[in-house]
Amino acid sequence: MKVAVVGATGLVGSEILTVLAERNFPVTALIPVASERSKGKEIEFKGNKYKVVTPAEAIALHPDVALFSAGGETSTEYAPQFAEAGITVVDNSSAWRMDPTKKLVVPEVNGEVLSAADKIIANPNCSTIQMVVVLQPLHAKYKIKRVVVSTYQSVTGTGVKAVNQLMDERAGKDGEKAYPYQIDLNVIPHIDVFQDNGYTKEEMKMIKETNKIMGDDSIRVTATTVRIPVMGGHSEAVNIEFENDFDLAEVRQLLGEQEGVIVIDDPANLQYPMPKDAHGKDEVLVGRIRRDESQDKTLNLWVVADNLRKGAATNAVQIAELLLKKGLI
C-alpha cells in the first residue's frame, strides 16, 4: 500500500507513523506530507528516511490512502482534491464529522457502514471515540436513554504548544501560551470555543458525534469537557441511564468481551484506570463500575484512553485496516 500521512510532522502525525509501524500496516511506499515550510524535512519510518512533500506533490504520487491530521483548514482544502484523484482519505480533523454525506467511524462500533463509495471518512473526536467503544455493547444489551459525561483531558489534546506551556510553568519559565490561563496546578473547564447555548464546541462534538456513530438520535447526551495538567490520556466520568435494568457482573462481562476494551476494576486492591496506564496503549480502559444509587437503571463508569492513540492515530489506522480487509482500498 502507498500511504500518505498528511500532517506528518505534528503530534498526531508522528503517532500515526508509530502506529503504522507497530501494527505492521503493509506500507510499501510512505509519503509524508506537510506544509510548504516543512517541505524537504526528513521523516524516519521503519529505519528508512523519507522527505516531506507538499499536498499537491502527494496527490501527484497517487497514494492508495491518505491519513490526514493537519487541522480543519487543510482538510477542507485538500481532502476533496485527494478524493477527486481517487485516493481514500481518513481525516482526523473536525471538518467532515457532521457532514451528512460522510461516514464517522469507530471500527469496533460502526465499521460495517464503510463502502467503496466513501472517499472521505471522518475520524471522530478523541473524547467521543473512547466513550462510544464502551457504550456500544451496553446499548445493544440494555438500550441507553441518557449519558452524562465529564471529561478530564490531557494537554496533548491541544498540541505541542500546550505541552510546552505546562512544562515551562513547571520549570518556572516564561514561554508561549496555548491557554488563556495557567494550566499547571490548575483545571480549565473550557475546551474549544463557547457556543451560543453555553456549551463549548468540544462538548457539542461529543453530543452530536455520539448520536451519529451509534446511529441512534434517541440517546440523549450532555457533556462538560475539562483540561487538566496531565499527559498520557483523557479520562471520563460517564453516567449512563438505561431503559432496561442491568446486572453488574454481566456489565463487566460485556465490557470485558468488547473488542478494544480492557476492564481494570478492583477497588479493594486500588485497581482502576489512570492516564499513565493508558499512555502508549491502543485499548480503552474502563473501571469504577458501579450502580448510580440516586437513580434506577443507571450506571457509573470511569473511562481512560491515550488520546493520541485510540483517540486519534490508532483509530485512523484501524479504519485503514478495515478498508483494506474489506477490499475498499
Automatic annotation (TrEMBL):
One of its GO terms (molecular function) is aspartate-semialdehyde dehydrogenase activity. Its EC number is 1.2.1.11. Pathway: Amino-acid biosynthesis; L-threonine biosynthesis; L-threonine from L-aspartate: step 2/5; Amino-acid biosynthesis; L-methionine biosynthesis via de novo pathway; L-homoserine from L-aspartate: step 2/3; Amino-acid biosynthesis; L-lysine biosynthesis via DAP pathway; (S)-tetrahydrodipicolinate from L-aspartate: step 2/4. It is an enzyme of class 1 (oxidoreductase). It catalyses: L-aspartate 4-semialdehyde + phosphate + NADP(+) = 4-phospho-L-aspartate + NADPH + H(+). Residues 2-117 form the Semialdehyde dehydrogenase NAD-binding domain. Phosphate binds at R97. It comes from the Bacteria. The active site is at C126 (acyl-thioester intermediate), H234 (proton acceptor). InterPro entries: Asp_semialdehyde_DH, Asp_semialdehyde_DH_beta, NAD(P)-bd_dom_sf, Semialdehyde_DH_NAD-bd, Semialdhyde_DH_dimer_dom. GO terms for biological process: 'de novo' L-methionine biosynthetic process; diaminopimelate biosynthetic process; isoleucine biosynthetic process; lysine biosynthetic process via diaminopimelate; threonine biosynthetic process. The keyword Cytoplasm does not apply. Keywords: Amino-acid biosynthesis, Diaminopimelate biosynthesis, Lysine biosynthesis, Methionine biosynthesis, NADP, Oxidoreductase, Threonine biosynthesis. Substrate binds at Q153, R227. The keyword Amino-acid biosynthesis applies. NADP(+) binds at T9, G10, L11, V12, R37, S38, N307. Belongs to the aspartate-semialdehyde dehydrogenase family. PANTHER family: ASPARTATE-SEMIALDEHYDE DEHYDROGENASE, DEHYDROGENASE, PUTATIVE-RELATED. Catalyzes the NADPH-dependent formation of L-aspartate-semialdehyde (L-ASA) by the reductive dephosphorylation of L-aspartyl-4-phosphate. Homodimer. This is Aspartate-semialdehyde dehydrogenase.
